[in-house]
Amino acid sequence: MATKDILGKSINVDEEGYLTDHSQWDKEIANALAKELNVELTDAHWKVLDFIDRDFKEKGVVPGIRRIKKVGNIPTKELYELFPDKPIKTAAMISGYPKPASCV
Amino acid sequence: MKNLLILGAGTAGTMMANHLRKQIDLNQWSISIVDEEPQHYYQPGFLFMPFGIYEPADVVQPKKKFVGKGVEYIQASIDRVDGDHNKVLLQDGNELPYDILIIATGCHPAPEEVEELTGSGWGKDVHEFYTFEGSSKLAEAMKGFNGGKLVVHIAELPIKCPVAPLEFAFLADWWLGQKGIRNKTEITYVTPLSSAFTKPTASKMLGHMLEDKNIRVVTDFNISEVDHQAKQMKSWGEESVDYDLLVTVPPNMGSEMVDRSGLGDELNFIATDPHTLQSKAHSNIFVLGDATDLPTSKAGSVAHFQAEILTENILSYMKGDALNARFDGHANCFVESGHNKAILLDFNYEQEPVPGTFPLPGIGPMKLLRESRLNHIGKMAFRWVYWNVLLPARPMPGISPHMTKLGKEIPKKPKQPNAA
Fold first, then answer.
1. End-to-end Cα spacing for chain A
2. What is the DSSP string of B270-321?
3. pLDDT exceeds cutoff 80 at B281
4. Which of B60, B54, B51, B56 is nearest to B167 (CA)?
5. Residue A40 lies in a domain
6. What is the distance between the alpha carbons of residues B100 and B321, in angstroms, rounded to a whole number?
7. Structural domain count, chain A
8. What would the mean pLDDT of B10-37 be, rounded to a whole number?
């Protein structure tokens, strides 16, 4: 466990930089994280991030590509256009949630 | 007479039928179980068939044989559950009313979910080992394999038995070595996750195994389609992986009857309370095994531990009492690593796999998160235990449904603020 300086605030993160305390997240933090990941957030990006936020609150995990397509109504092609490099990992990090993991 | 109805006579459904028939008053309750497929497969055996370690006959028995006396066995296809009217509709037009429903309809590979996966090479140089037919066909293909690019792939998560693809890669490394063609084979493990092992301790302790066995790992690969002419898998991220023999785990989905019943999520898994195993939609519907949406492994051991908890809760529910038994996500899984060795994992919702001993602290005899020959012997012996102890719901002394912390090397770390 570590901390990271984002916009002058000390934010709790894991070894890879994913936020471990979502209460520390806000839209400015999101924009700062996005910038580090070479993503400029537009309304279309926020549609994805808002869905991840709603869904995590309901399910307790970051949604996968299928759920983002079927429930979030964001087709996979569009998801990859918005977040070209490892979209789920990238979107999870920007939205302040843990990256998806398996049981092992 | 009240009706307790179980949908699915696989591992979970059969165990529930056998637990309950011994504990409820069969003068007041009738127990019925419904399944459309007459064959019960020992699914862990599907991993061994491609390597000739098991023959097809070793892994199949009739389902009905394992459902004990006092339970009505109905072979039929289910149309859907009408939760608002407490009845199940069968495809033949019959209706089964219930007072309590237990859904144990499992999950299955759905290769049609990946574009072109079942194209011209399917069953020839593109295979899966998550069905009896698939594993049998792959066994034939392996006999004829003489080197080249062997790719082991996971299309999407969750899958049942999440370690099986890794086990396949480890066994292939060993088996090809035995056949003298390991030098002529490139083994590549392709996953949508960002690493082969995603939990920190397992990753630290086992991550080196892939490199040691010269297995290349391709991560963050989300398959978009298969090109059978070029023998290539493509991803949404515009990467590609070439193969001569592709062993894939297709997306796993819950039963279509779950979708027809309006009970499923995007993969047809049912929203279930993670502790009581009650469905979130109807208080008299319970769910266990691979059919749930719970954040733990889809595995036989999980169904076994759930069955013990759910039996207690069903008995409470029948009396109108609170559901006090709580499932903790406990899973106990062997990981075959080749060379007659295996690793054992024991974990739950809260606790990642860590080193230690199982089931007894210090004594074991199984080692957790470490390879041992005894672990492998345990895995092979388990087939007998499955048919003769697990399915008939006979007691397994010393093994609690709740994961124990005793015997585990759990690192002390400061409590983290909750991320959710």
1. 20
2. BPB-TTT-BBSS-TTEEE-GGGB--SS-BSHHHHHHHHHHHHHHHHHHHHT-
3. yes
4. B51
5. yes
6. 15
7. 1
8. 98
- Give contacts of A 36-65 with B, CB under 8 A: 56-57, 59-61, 64-65
Q: Which domains, ranges and CATH numbers included, belong to chain B?
A: 2-108+254-319 (3.50.50.60), 111-252 (3.50.50.60)
Question: Could you say which of A1, A101, A103, A104 is catalytic?
Answer: A103
Q: Report yes or no on A20 lying in a domain.
A: no
Residue type, B167: E
Confidence at residue B416, expressed as pLDDT on a 0 to 100 scale:
54
pLDDT at residue B352 greater than cutoff 70: yes
d(CA B19, CA B32): 13
Task: Using an 8 Å CB-CB cutoff, list chain A residues near B265.
Answer: 67, 71
B105-162 residue pLDDT tens: 999 999 999 999 999 999 999 999 999 999 999 999 999 999 999 999 999 999 999 9
B33-45 average pLDDT score: 98
Sheet-wide strand order for B78-82: B78-82, B87-90, B95-97
- CB-CB neighbors (< 8 A) of A67 in chain B: 265-266
Q: Per residue, what are the HEC states of B37-51?
A: CCEEECHHHHHCHHH
Q: Which residue range forms the structural domain that includes residue A32? A: 26-94
Does the pTM of the predicted model rise above 0.90?
yes
pLDDT number for residue B418: 53
Classify the complex by whether its ipTM is higher than 0.95, answering yes or no. Answer: no
Instruction: Write down the pLDDT at residue A69.
Output: 97
- In terms of DSSP H, where are the helices of B144-191? 164-178
Q: Is A2 a member of any domain?
A: no
To the query of whether residue A76 is one of the catalytic residues in this protein, the response is: no
Distance (Å, whole) CA B124 – CA B181? 20
pLDDT of residue B399: 95
Residue B105 near residue B254, CB atoms below 8 Å: yes
Helices (H), B96-242: 132-143, 164-178, 200-206, 208-212
Per the CB < 8 A criterion, the answer to whether B218 and B241 are in contact is yes
Instruction: Tell me how far apart the alpha carbons of residues B10 and B308 are, in angstroms, rounded to a whole number.
Output: 16
Tokens of A99: 């990256």
Establish if A41 belongs to a structural domain: yes
